[in-house]
Amino acid sequence: MRGIVTRFAPSPTGYLHIGGARTALFNWLFARRHGGTFILRIEDTDQERSTPESVVAILEGMTWLGMTWDEGPYYQTERRELYREEAKRLLAEGKAYRCVCTPEELDRRREAARAKGEKPRYDRRCRDLPPSGAEGKPFVVRFKAPLSGTTIVRDLLRGDIAYENEELDDLVLLRSDGSPTYNFVVVVDDATMGITHVLRGDDHLNNTPKQVLLYEALGTLLPRFGHFPLIHGMEGGKLSKRQDDVSVMAYRDRGFLPEAMVNYLVRLGWGHGDQEIFSVEELTRIFSLESVGKSPSRFDPEKLLHLNAHYIKTGNPERLAALLVPFLGKRGFDVEPSPWLVKAVRTFQERSRTLEEMAESSEFYFLCKDPDPKAAEKFFTPEMAPVFEEIAREFADLPDFTPAAMEPVLHRVAEKTGSKLGKVAQPMRVALTGGTVSPGIFEVMDVLGRDEVIRRLSRASRRIRGA
RNA sequence: GUCCCCAUCGUCUAGUCCGGCCAAGGACACCGCCCUUUCACGGCGGCGACGCCGGUUCAAAUCCGGCUGGGGACGCCA
Questions:
Q1: Quick check: A165 CB within 7 A of strand B?
Q2: H or E segment at A375?
Q3: Is the pLDDT of residue A1 over 60?
Q4: Which of A66, A109, A434, A462 has its CA at 20 to 30 Å from residue A234's CA atom?
């Protein structure tokens, strides 16, 4: 007995998206919370659309978010014999039948049913066909679902949901090429893998009664089910790749931290009083299905940004520096993590919402940018040239080039010209960073270092003097 | 169309199970003010919701029914 066993079973037809990631997260947290087992299973029964690249992308996304699986990844393509055996058994037991209707015919009938305002589903015309009737023709294997009665789905989040069996359909178990379909493999796999809790999106709720019937036909124990609401895009409705940013890895590439992503995702549909910030470690202790909401939630990039800013602000600067390196590289700065870089990072932790923003705004640390034209016009006035020169001279004579030592210099110079610190600080900022927005001027100088500061001040004064 | 699910600020949510503690709390966003060498951070304040109608009850965001609205599913996709 392994206690609780959950699984995440994505189909490898694209990258790991926001919705899938949250499904995985809930399953993972639930297993961790109860000391259970979390299984990763790749549902690659759709030969047409499954790709090995997608598998890699999904594993990469899981790993980035820190979700470790205890078993798998299992691949359904490697378990085909099992499904075939089970289908054969159902056929032999009269719980399934061969259907020779062609996809085209089915399409036509579905359309006709829809036109008449009926529920489009299989009319079961092959259900009682003698085995000889399928002779020589391609066939699919269908499940012989009961025609009457009621099937109850016991859902952990929603309670009991009753379905009239006459509403249900005769599912295709095996396609005409012999490959199994989703609704079949999911039941066979969940049963044979001993999954105790099937936690998945709401979009599977209506499949569940059919699956329950299948479990019964197979003679296996039923897992517990829990269907949580879908995540909607900002426009409402299912997240769409078209109008919503849904790839998890795209967020990494834009400078989001995995802990921010996890924190955001878990709060979409789950709450714990008024608390907003959760570490992964804490989540694995307190996550509970009872606190998962029943109504759908919208994906709000603004709030994710806010959380990311929080984790950057409070994050370990050494780690952030290392994570920042590739973003700097993208902008053409070939830097290595170093104590100096860490110091630079510290000056931006409180003013960056993403690593990408940090890389962008910290560019001036790596090259002496030309001043922004408007800023230069406003702050590089003729009287600033001698001020810059004097400050440079005094800096050169300072025994230690520390913020504590620099500060009196600026105050003295400011007083001499009868102005406040701001009058000097802002032009200095333009001279040193090229713009009017930056970390505190003393912090900036501390990172830049004495030589570079003097160099940039001289450059600015030369510029003012028109040299 | 049929079936299923859902319904508290613009958004994420607390409260709903066990009606009174809720003239509904927190967070994001937005708007002010304060702090301040810029920008941020931070602090303070503001804006802002129980979808509607009925019922039960001394009392309903909380229980019941209907309506409306939103979403999902109806594949040889998963």
A1: no
A2: helix A373-379
A3: no
A4: A66
